[in-house]
Write a structure and sequence with these properties.
The complex is a heterodimer of chains A (82) and B (152). Chain A is of the alpha+beta class. Chain A has two helices and three strands, in the order βββαα. The mean pLDDT of chain A is 88. The chains are: A alpha+beta (82), B mainly beta (152).
Chain lengths: 82, 152
Amino acid sequence: MLMMSRREGETILIGDSIEIVIAHIGRSRVRVGIRAPRETPVLAREVKLVREENLAAAAGHSAEAVSRLLAGIRSNPPASRR
Amino acid sequence: MSGFVTKHFGELPAQPEVEFEFPGGLPGFEARRRFVPLHFERSDPLIFLQSLEDPDLCFLTVPVLAVDARYRLGVEPEDLEAIGLPGDRQPRIGKEVLCLAVLSIYAEGATANLLAPLVVNLKTGKAVQAVRADSRYSHQHPMVSEETPVCS
């Protein structure tokens, strides 16, 4: 992985069409400005994970799968879990 | 208009009493904003979250505390403000907010998304899928441990 040190207000270019500006450096987080072509999706990694997980979650669940899940939850209540 | 159509339970006769509104939708379902929680005694503690805008969309959820009794919220200030709560402190689960984990059913078993719980303002019904910025919890937390339980 390429590592680069930048100060507040400085910019990084990726190819000809993507620009990343270090807009603000706070105590524990950095605010970043991103300029990219409309067709390039830009999102936080965890939001991508959640999007994929939501799509999988909505894909459907048979009645049988739901009852199996329920049986599992009931035989293993959270209090007994680590 | 009377009733609404659900994915698993056909058409329910009455208008829902409780409705959750996600002003920004959910990641992957940005245009779906209105959901009704359906809870039945025989499927407790599961809560079916039925979309009012798409009869084919129904999430299977469970209160986070039923997955991990010691779950600690980590909602970003902007998410709290989006549902009308003060952004400078975490809300109390069960008092100010309802906190649900979305379940996915895979061949290997079900998992709960503890990385991004659904947080609902109990007073207003305004809701958000609050994606945590830390990596304290998994988006695929196994619902039932694969390991053999050990008695201590």
